[in-house]
Amino acid sequence: MLTLATVAPGEPEIFAALQGEGVSAGLPCAFVRLSRCNLACAWCDTAYTWRFEGDNRPHRDGLAFARGENQVSLEEAEVAARIAALGQSRLVVTGGEPLLQGAALARMLAALQRLVRGLVVEVETNGTVAPHPALDPLIDQFNVSPKLAHSGNPASLALVPERLAEWAADARAWFKFVIGAAGDVDEVRALAADYGIAPGRVILMPEGRDSATLRERARWLGELCLMDGYRLSDRLHIHLSGDTRGT
């Protein structure tokens, strides 16, 4: 079984859209959003995947979500069939933290590969969890998003040295950092130096859940990317659909 987020009570968050972030931005994709996360980012825009009633981990919105309305469990074969029905050859697995469900995710992807020829799979991860051995060979691209200090997570939880070293050594991994202020980039520079991550594999993305905030932050962030040789990522889905589920 896989535990998924929902777009409405009982309806799993499985949808087709353009990838909004990172190196694949603009590509048509199927998406599946899994539930549960081992971190708690103060600015997380999908807190409904983890901040359920009784979870007091801090979040700037202060909202707590009813688990029964925001989480649903489905058999792997059903998830694969729903994704295949979207007619896309590229899948983005997001969350939450998808790698917490690595074994079940591997079974789902194996079933999906039998339904979709030429399937390409991206996994979006916070970089703290190792891919399950059965899952790892099924993934074409890892979008690794280590959480900086402004996320509110202790570095001991969010920046796991052995995991960062493994991702840095994996040619499938791209590093996408959420940036709220110019000073956050100093942390990125330090991590890139410590783990030997080439500038061309580093993507900086402004934190924001509305177009005005993203545009304002992109102006100065773009200058920093130009200076350091990093890539700049927008959040295309916010401009197209707003801060909504299923986009």
* Coarse shape: globular
Structural class: alpha/beta
Instruction: List the secondary-structure elements in sequence, H or E.
Output: EEEEHEHEHEEHHEHEHEH
CATH architecture term: Alpha-Beta Barrel
Q: Can you list the strand order of the major beta sheet? A: 3-4-6-7-8-9-10-11
Percentage of residues in helical conformation: 25-40%
Give the strand content.
15-25%
Radius of gyration: 17 Å
Q: How many E strands?
A: 11
Biggest sheet statistics = 8 strands, mixed
Q: Can you put this structure into words, describing what you see?
A:
There is one protein chain. The chain has 247 residues and is of the alpha/beta class. It has one domain: Aldolase class I (TIM Barrel), CATH 3.20.20.70. It is built from eight helices and eleven strands. The strands form two sheets. The protein has an eight-stranded mixed sheet with strand order 3-4-6-7-8-9-10-11. Strands 2-1-5 form a three-stranded antiparallel sheet. Helix 6 links the parallel strand 9 and strand 10. Helix 2 crosses helix 3. It is globular, with a radius of gyration of 17 Å. The model has no long low-confidence stretch (mean pLDDT 97).
Comma- or semicolon-separated keywords:
8 helices; eight-stranded mixed β-sheet; three-stranded antiparallel β-sheet; 11 strands; TIM Barrel; alpha/beta; 247 residues; single chain; globular
